[in-house]
Amino acid sequence: MKKHKPAPAAPIIIAFVLASLDAAVWYQIAAFRGTPPVRDYFLDVGQGDSELIIFPDNVKVMTDAGPTDQVVADLGSVLPPGDAYIDLAVITHPQADHFNGYNFLLDHYQVGAFIYNGRDDDPGVKAWTALKEKIAARGIPFITLRAGDSIRYRDDEIDILSPDAGFAASAELNDTGLVELVRTPQFSTLLTADTGFNVEDWLVAQGGSIHADVLKVGHHGSKYASGDAFLRAVDPEVAVIEVGAKNTYGHPGSSTLARIASDTGARLFRTDQDGTVEVYEADGRLRVVKGK
After folding, report:
1. Are 199 and 223 in contact, with CB atoms under 8 Å apart?
2. Residue 160: which of 45, 22, 284, 4 has the closest Cα?
3. Could you state, in order of their start, the residue ranges of all structural domains in the chain?
């Protein structure tokens, strides 16, 4: 890969316009009004990623959908009957263990808009082509976001930290993954896709705070992610690894588990051992429910 050169930050007006568009979608569609606490769900989709964050007013933002139709059953276990609308669906990068579940989810759920990084998978990957065709056939907006963009809803904000233009053009698709820092009045969450040491080091070098109370551990706990400096900068209270049981990749790596233990005081959860993991705040403390 060519030496990475950071690009200038996106103009503020871009973030404002995108935020306004997405907020309009949310206000028009969101149902089941109310103000329960913000909840994170790390869905047990096997060897893949899928996260659901439910904001006030039942506004739902889903990041990735795993590799199979397992995501449909998982959503059915955490959402009430009849709640079949996802306000925003994020595809961090076009690899099947992150996007293919949306091919099945769209047969059961309506989606207000899709967010992705603007990259395509290999033209021979039929599942990616099928998903794009489904999104287009349903007339769902398909919006490209990059570093510097953000989405706001009331007091909640999703900041896109990566990729910038350099990483977005990388030949390594893992470098292109959308990294989302979700800030709410209750707690913050960092979603890291499959990014590795190089993206982590770049994020730390930018100088801004990347602290988060909850960390989705990068790349299923790969030994090539979750570096020491990055983990110390995030300093999470809860860390979650989304990983399939007996996977062939050796995830999570023993060195990664050791770094999480030595560099943070985080409580660590794994979907292969704990099932779907739910995180929320109550009485000033983060609560974790396993096996949802």
Report:
1. no
2. 22
3. 12-290
pLDDT per position as a tens digit, 237-265: 999 999 999 999 999 999 999 999 999 99
Structure confidence by residue, pLDDT tens digits, 95-113: 999 999 999 999 999 999 9
pTM (predicted TM-score) = 0.89
Q: Specify the CATH number of the domain 12-290.
A: 3.60.15.10
Confirm if 62 and 34 have CB atoms less than 8 A apart: no
